[in-house]
Design goal:
This protein is an all-alpha fold. It has a domain of 248 residues. It has 14 helices and two strands; from the N terminus they run αααααββααααααααα.
């Protein structure tokens, strides 16, 4: 990573850390709980933003790894006194599952379209399996899976030696720290040799193979990393509500993750985070007002972005700013003209993008 880019990333991380530290002193507990959930979803968005935006792997089943992470934490929390084991399990279990699933998909040379279908099918299978685990017979150690009712009263994190138990404010700091750490980690990973190879495979898999790289291996490793990050998000989600249920594997969850990426911007890291936070805030606001159907609003947003801004908010804004600076003047009329031109260009590119994805 270039020195300037590294400094910018570290500066942004420092500002974010300061904002996270000040937030509990400024907002009330209810708002803090909401934003804790938003940040957990931001971590989840990074998992798909990485493998889809930079690896070219469209996974419709990222909710599978999200749910496995949540259930792994809940089950381990009931069976182990140390909080380290449940957190490690929340990352390791979905990562291993992603490795097993990805091995058969990538080494079986399955096309990208069928990768999406398989991951979605696996998510629905997990939903039905976990949904059918009601009764005392379905237990893993001390943890009763609970079927559709889920697992309530999941123990939170307890620090070793002191016995201090995390509260809402501590969970906020944890979610903010995880989001910042995952973001910086992915930025550094993409700047490394591994990250550049992953992007090269996304651009032209055949050329990368001719240069001596094994696309199957790099895709598999990227898929495993994405699964582990999604599992971490599932752990944060379970800690937030002290509850986990099969609805975490639902089709709605998988669809929302796709919408976050498309709204924020594919091929960026900050875009998926902003998209996740904005959409989750909007859904929460709509739910509190009960004036509109949240699913109808999400469908409308997806349709508008696909037709008008297929690249997403962040890439569109970046191109708009670059175009304005190339002109050397920034006025109100210039901004309106450049924005209108950018929307027209994006709308004209939408059929080509759709055709490329289909191919």
């Amino acid at each position: 990573m270039p020195r300037r880019s590294l400094l910018l990333v570290l500066a942004a991380a420092a500002v974010s850390a300061v904002a996270a530290g000040v937030a509990p002193q400024v907002i009330d507990t209810f708002a803090l709980l909401q934003w804790t959930l938003f940040l957990a979803m931001g971590v989840l968005s990074l998992s798909l933003g990485f493998i889809w935006g930079f690896g070219g792997i469209l996974s419709f089943g990222q909710a599978a790894f999200f749910g496995l992470g949540g259930y792994a934490y809940a089950v381990a929390a009931f069976n182990f006194e140390s909080s380290a084991v449940p957190v490690i399990a929340a990352v390791a279990v979905p990562a291993l599952f992603a490795g097993a699933l990805g091995y058969f998909m990538f080494y079986g040379r399955i096309s990208n379209v069928y990768v999406g279908v398989i991951t979605l099918t696996v998510t629905l299978i997990l939903f039905n399996v976990v949904n059918s685990t009601a009764g005392d017979a379905y237990r893993i150690g001390a943890a009763a899976l609970g079927g559709f009712n889920g697992i309530p009263s999941v123990p939170g994190i307890t620090l070793p030696f002191t016995g201090y138990q995390f509260g809402p404010e501590d969970n906020w700091y944890l979610a903010a720290g995880c989001l910042i750490a995952v973001f910086i980690g992915l930025r550094m990973l993409l700047a490394s040799h591994f990250g550049r190879v992953v992007v090269a495979i996304r651009e032209n898999e055949t050329r990368a193979a001719l240069l001596g790289y094994d696309p199957r291996l790099y895709k598999l490793l990227a898929f495993v990393i994405g699964g582990g990050i999604a599992g971490l998000a599932g752990c944060l989600y379970t800690l937030w509500g002290a509850f986990i249920s099969p609805t975490i594997f639902s089709l709605a969850t998988s669809a929302q993750i796709i919408i976050w990426i498309m709204v924020g911007g594919l091929g960026t890291l900050i875009g998926p985070v902003l998209g996740a936070i904005a959409i989750q805030w909007l859904v929460t606001s709509i739910g509190s007002q009960q004036a509109f159907d949240a699913n109808l609003v999400l469908g409308t947003i997806l349709l508008l972005f696909v037709l008008l801004v297929p690249a997403g908010v962040v890439p569109t804004v970046e191109r708009l700013i670059a175009r304005l600076f190339r002109r050397g003047r920034i006025g109100r009329a210039d901004i309106v003209a450049a924005a209108t031109e950018e929307i027209h260009v994006s709308a004209a590119a939408a059929p080509a993008i759709a055709g490329g994805d289909a191919a």
